[in-house]
Design the sequence.
């Protein structure tokens, strides 16, 4: 039996990495068995900060679909679609923008920070679209009357604002929308190959799409205990990035690996080889699904078209209600 309805989205910004998978997508794959899920590749959101160069957008959308499907999201169990294929998102965004005080949008904690941060990289996001980002996110969620939204910690302020916007709508017109709550999965942060948080902005990521050989190459580049210079030096697994990965991918023998490192019974090169093989093994199903889909790009498009058709039905029904309570139904057939 379904616990409720989920909506979540990700921006197709390219470079989906193993941290994104373990921190977010793996959770979705579990949730698909418990909830009725809508998962959207939010291409309009991607334009709120990267509107100038859209040359990679189609490729990024395709790759994100491959990431999701190869991770095991089932297009029958879930509604998987591209945001811009369901125009109701834009209509509701517009209507919500009428009732949202400007000050609510301006006080989002990340709003000014991100303008400055991207500004220092030469990108100007002092735009109407970027200011309205939370408006679009609110429309995404409430179009489907989702009650649960799996997100990372960073999205909590956005979700809080969504609740305020929909409360205002419910108060001004009629109670149409339920209030969604955040679903925070396990909050482990995966390190990148240099030991800092894995992030596309550091260039320390392991791409989720990496082939077995690319995986092996990235593992070879991982930083280990800096105090351990020679193989005969005793190591400290607690400060070693390779060991942090062993804890995730080599679940059974981690105690043994730690001991062998501390006693200098295993060198870093062999320890990395062992890790790489474990990773290749545990990601084998994902790699196999990806290869199948890569050989059949039409299938990927069909899945997204099918998802958009199903999403549109729900979204259209919500918009009828919205127009009705706002007195925008006159003369409609
Ligand atoms: P981002 O691409 O940074 O916007 O992140 C998208 C999602 O992946 C968010 O839910 C993050 O919490 C998650 N995520 C990103 N990097 C990591 C990481 N290194 N470890 C765990 N989760 C991550
Ligand atoms: N803002 C989210 C992010 O950057 C993506 C997103 C768009 C989203 N719409 C959403 C997440 C609706 C949850 C629900 O990660």
Sequence:
């Amino acid at each position: 039996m379904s616990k409720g309805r989920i909506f979540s989205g990700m921006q197709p910004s390219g470079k989906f990495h193993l941290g994104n998978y373990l921190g977010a997508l793996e959770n979705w794959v579990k949730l698909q068995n418990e909830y009725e899920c809508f998962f959207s590749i939010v291409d309009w959101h991607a334009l709120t900060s990267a509107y100038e160069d859209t040359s990679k957008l189609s490729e990024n959308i395709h790759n994100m679909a491959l990431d999701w499907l190869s991770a095991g999201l089932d297009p029958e169990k879930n509604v998987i679609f591209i945001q811009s294929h369901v125009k109701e998102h834009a209509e509701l965004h517009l209507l919500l923008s009428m009732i949202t005080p400007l000050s609510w949008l301006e006080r989002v904690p990340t709003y000014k920070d991100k303008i400055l941060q991207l500004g220092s990289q030469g990108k100007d996001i002092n735009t109407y679209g970027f200011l309205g980002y939370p408006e679009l996110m609110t429309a995404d969620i409430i179009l489907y009357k989702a009650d649960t939204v799996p997100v990372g910690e960073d999205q909590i302020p956005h979700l809080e604002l969504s609740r305020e916007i929909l409360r205002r709508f419910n108060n001004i017109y009629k109670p149409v929308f339920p209030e969604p709550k955040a679903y925070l999965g396990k909050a482990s942060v995966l390190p990148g190959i240099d030991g800092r948080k894995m992030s596309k902005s550091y260039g320390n990521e392991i791409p989720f799409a990496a082939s077995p050989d690319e995986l092996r190459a990235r593992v070879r580049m991982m930083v280990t205990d800096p105090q351990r210079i020679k193989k005969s030096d005793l190591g400290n697994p607690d400060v070693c990035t390779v060991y942090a990965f062993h804890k995730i991918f080599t679940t059974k023998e981690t105690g043994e690996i730690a001991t062998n490192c501390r006693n200098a019974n295993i060198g870093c090169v062999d320890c990395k080889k062992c890790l790489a093989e474990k990773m290749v093994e545990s990601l084998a199903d994902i790699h196999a699904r990806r290869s199948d889909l890569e050989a059949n790009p039409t299938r990927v498009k069909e899945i997204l078209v099918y998802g958009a058709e199903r999403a549109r039905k729900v979204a259209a029904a919500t918009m009828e209600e919205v127009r009705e309570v706002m007195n925008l139904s006159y003369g409609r057939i």
Observations:
- The longest helix spans residues 297-325.
